[in-house]
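Example 511.
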Amino acid sequence: MVNRRRFLLRAGVATALLGRPGFANATHQAEVTISDKPDGRVIPLDYTGLSYELSQLSEPGFFAARNHDLVAYFRLLSNNGVLRLGGNTSEFCWFRADVSTEAPKLHVPPGNLEANWMPHRLFEIVPEAIDNLGGFLEATGWRLIYGLNFGNSTPQRAATEAAYVARRLGKYLEYFQIGNEPDLYQKASNGTRPPGWGFDDYTGEWIGFARAVRARVPEARFGGPDVAASSDWVARFGEQEMAKMDGGLVALTGHYYAEGPPDDPRVTTERLLAGDARVAAQIETVEAFAEARSLHYRMTEGNSCYRGGKPGMSNAFAAALWAGDYMLLLASLGCVGVNVHGGDSRFLTAGLGGHTPGLDAAKQPQAMPSGFYTPIASERGGVVHAMPIFYGMMVANALAGMTMMDAKLRGGGNATAYAATGPEGTRVAVFNKDGGRGMDLSIRTPRGMKTATAWRLCAPGLDATEGVTLAGAAVGEHGVWAPKTVEPIAVRDGAARLQVPAASAALVILS
Ligand code: BDP
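Predicted structure in complex with beta-D-glucopyranuronic acid:
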């Protein structure tokens, strides 16, 4: 079998492989040349992250060690991940420190709320939820970024909550954030602050909260500004707050949604997979600023499509190829981590002010009203399971802890390749995002290789919401998965040679 395949490839008659005319046109010849990168960055072990609405804590049993299935899915994704809690609903959460604590005053913007996308109801977090979260983090090995309410709260409330969180979560707490997407506060769809409120107002208020927290938790660390899109705020925030925080500001953060909203007809799988040149440009600017100041940059929230995701795209295999590619692109640019947003649709829908644009756009029954982009489906009363995007994140996470190499891909159409090396060899992730054409790929490294194997990431199609496999295996019940098909790859003349079919990815392991 292998010999026959080799012969066919050498003879350049790959057409015969599929036995149908026109196959030669349907494949791209492509080559990945890998070289050492003098400044090759180590992808942090805790690169992979998930982001959830803070309101998820209003159900204290969710992030709990006894939620065994959720623990298993987190552990399968990474043994060292970072959970970020925040989102729109974080501006409506309040910590009931004890029975005498009263709810905060809910600020409701004046005028027509139809065009407003915020929850306008409060979510109560009791100490037990934080205690359970501690058990969950211990069981998963994950650490936490905790988003404090900045929208409907006071510095004193934030300080009381932070003190409890810091005391109970100790070493599992990475840092606090204050507020979610403050660059959108003055917009009609958000309304957390009045029109005209801007960056200077933000930093003025932010420092008041941060100082109150530090008065109670002197060792508290912070990340920010957790903006939706304004990368200029990131640098300005870093510049100003670093000076005031005396080492307390440890990370710069922002969000990225590739597409949206789901009811915009221009939002398509094709456009998602074409990639977005703005990402690299923005990250490069932010990274240059952060690195010069020994700060880290983390993408603390994002996904394929804002406003809850688009059915048929965000919950389908296309999102797996998008996420794997996107996570490794950001790693190659020096980002220290990516948190993909998701969770239970009840809280995601609340974070959209009850709107369900994805559901409305689908015009057909869906299992949930929003949150189509969630990596782990965990609807109340339902079975916890991995969505297609989860598999793409698994591929990216396979390079965590390794040193990135330079991977130049020539040919291949709409495809990307990333390489990283570690004590056990080199790993190359190749994403063929072209829905129609396969790749005839060779991979070369400076040191050559003796053997090569591959895990395939595939599915029945880009729009498939089921039937995704990685290394021949689907993630089974209770988050159980192990590679089933570790495919031997031909090594000839110092190069690994393989086909990467249309709409699939391969993780090639060279040794
Ligand atoms: C972000 C919010 C998050 C939303 C998400 C979305 O932080 O709470 O759920 O957008 O639009 O802006 O899906």
